[in-house]
Amino acid sequence: xxKDQEYLEKKASYCLDFSKKLGATDVSVNVxxxxxxxxxxxxxxxxxxxxxxxxxxxxxxxxxxxxxxISSSNLLEDNLxxxxxxxxxxxxxxxxxxxxxLPDKNLLAKEVQDLNLYDDTHLENNDxxxxxxxxxxxxxxxxxxxNTESSFIEDKSNFILANSDGFCKGFKTSSxxxxxxxxxxDDQSMERDYEYTLKCHLKDLKNAEEIxxxxxxxxxxxxxxxxxxxxxxxxxxxxxxARGLLSTFAGAISASVISRGTSFLKDKINQKIFSDTxxxxxxxxxxxxxxxxxxxxxxxxxxxxxxxxxxILKHYLIDTYYGNKLSLKSNGRCGGxxxxxxxxxxxSNEDLLSLNSKCLYITxxxxxxxxxxxxxxxxxxxGFFVENGEFKYPxxxxxxxxxxxxMFQNITVADxxxxxxxxxxxxxxxxxxxxxxx
Amino acid sequence: xxxxxxxxxxxxxxxxxxxxxxLKKCDDGELYLENSKSENxxxxxxxxxxxxYNSDLGFGFRAVxxxxxxxxxxxxxxKNSLKQSSENLKSTLKSANGTYSYSIPRSNIKYYENIxxxxxxxxxxxxxILNKVNDYLRQKNSNVKQVTANFSGEQKSxxxxxxxxxxxxxxxxxxxxxxxxxxxxxxRKETGVYGVGGRQSYDTYLANDKWKNVCDEAFxxxxxxxxxxxxxxxxxxxxxxxxWPAILIHEAIGHGLEGDFNRKKTSAFHNLMGQxxxxxxxxxxxxxxxxxxxxxxTIDDEGTPTEKTVLIENGxxxxxxxxxxxxxxxxxxxxxxxxxxxxxxxxxPRMRNTMMLNGKQTQDEMIKSVDKGIxxxxxxxxxxxxxxGKFVFNCTEAYEIVNGKIGSPIKGATLxxxxxxxxxxxxxxxxxxxxxxxxxxxxxxxxxxxxxxxQPSILIDKMTVGGTNL
Lengths: 438, 470
What we know:
Chain A is α+β, with helices and mostly antiparallel strands.
């Protein structure tokens, strides 16, 4: 069983008190426990079981405007005392920084909303194995599939965040994840693809056969790919990679890169950075949402924000430290966004594919090719060549490149938004990018 | 050396009994104990931003039967916790009926000293260097608009206890010092990043103003990029500089030669053993035995002493990199390549220091032979799809080559190629092999481990450059 609130609160308040006793003027403590159990299958047989029990504590001590942190997985009192002594000593020797402070008391969350993020159900490993048997049977239902690997993870976590201004809150979360990776081979090529499902509640998990069948289907359609020539062509981003662009956007509007001047979106507040049709929301109170939360990693209440409204950038993602630096109030985004998404568009996925006589439908990108200082973007890609709305053949060993400033202005979003993960996007199209191939 | 049992209600003797009892019908397995101390001190935006210290303690208990691995880890080194893990492993491997392989090679050679780099330098002297770095760069040029620098240091003590009580230990120091600088000129911004590191004290890398070299290099890269023009798009010849660009080797063929992917036949290389996979003159080794290097290990995370493994010899595929599990199933021996990020993770076959050895040509000859192409000197990182064999890496410093001469710098672009065929496109191998500066971290299955790379300059006849200029 994951450690209960009482145990975690006791540890947290012990550390608060001990730090204060040694001379800290302010303290914050985050203590958590997570237990996860994983079963892996390969080629329809048990391959691995893994049980993981993780304890962790993070303590930040302040002496005036001086600050230092320690973290540990060893929660025995004598170890914590040694570490806190070390932390206080380091704090004293660290230069002052006028922007260091605990969050504004008035911004702290007053309550933990019930967002239904915890399911107490425990699935025995035998039952996980049964799910995976069904999944793998569906995934291996074709002779070209030469390898299947699948995994079922059950995770339960609990934490308490406490600070010396009296904040002391936490909540339990659970997650159930089933995933499948298939490898297919023919005379010409060998390809891999995947599918997965991730939910807070066991009963919401997608059907095992569906996950296995889709992993196989996605893999088989990639066989025998071609390399295309270099050209400028409309690019469709499959949902699963379109959300990566949202994460890049979020990275470029965090107060840290804005205050340091290292983002291509610095000083773009209230300016049009996307086309009129684009709105981007961050909504923390979605019931059972993967990114749902009542407060951020500093305890600041997290409210819904419309980050981009009809193409115009309305908010940065602000925490206490960089907020102090920018003279802006924290908006509860320490640690990043909650449930981030593009609002859905008006065009169907099929119509989007037929908007141009030919386009490239990208299902996977590799490489970290986004530079948020300059906005330059260049990544390896695999996908399909589409002509008159129809998939013609798979494509690989190409790159797609552009600059995010231009790419953002040229996005068209489809209407197929679903809330599966913490960051979600409908299918999107970007015009004006360059493909490098032959 | 850590004594993992002195503050526990669990005695070494009791632990040995639980290990032997749990593993009696298994083919392999061990208790892995780890105690690590690490620090990270960051200067950013003219201020000391973080001074963090971490202390991590835990165990991972593994039992292996046939192809099946059962694993359980915890932070609590106690009788209860180990027994619970033991029950967990037994319940997964109920039908185990193997014979434990007790033999493990031993060696007395150590590739780094037993030091704790964190304690070898005071906090104040680290802060002092960070402030000097900031002042040095900002005074160097008025275009410098942002400086970030950091010290990260670690000491990791491990003990492996096998069935029967055999114990293997290692203490691993590791440091890294990194500088990132952003320049702004005429409204245009570019960054340059450089770092150094390895398994010695901070001062080995930084004393006597050596930290200035790190600053100068980061500044130089950023300055070059300020003048860069859009990169070309399409297939062309590529000359790679020596040293760090060897992440091409790491991505393009290194991962594909790890034992697990080949046992599972999911690597594009699995049926190519003994065959020609590279041009003549191309020899690639993976070496864990270089003194004090970031990717070096005295023993791997299963206790096997590391070695210099020849992967490709004069173009012919000779060996895969193996841990004990994959070696046993493929009926070969472990190459001392079994690694894990920490006690939370299972062991996988991984790279250490992956190196292409010297050839005979000079970089000059390579450049002169190219009519139209690019010269890539520095990289950000790379990634590979080991099944299709396609790999990428991101240039952070590159130039066009026009009519045998180095031309203008070009913007960062992704290069993409095909692992199994790329080494056949290598038409010249240089005589200027260089090791990287000690900054690489390799990710696989969610686990990051420190690695090294090395290569001489090479000429690749055909690769796709992912620029925007058609």
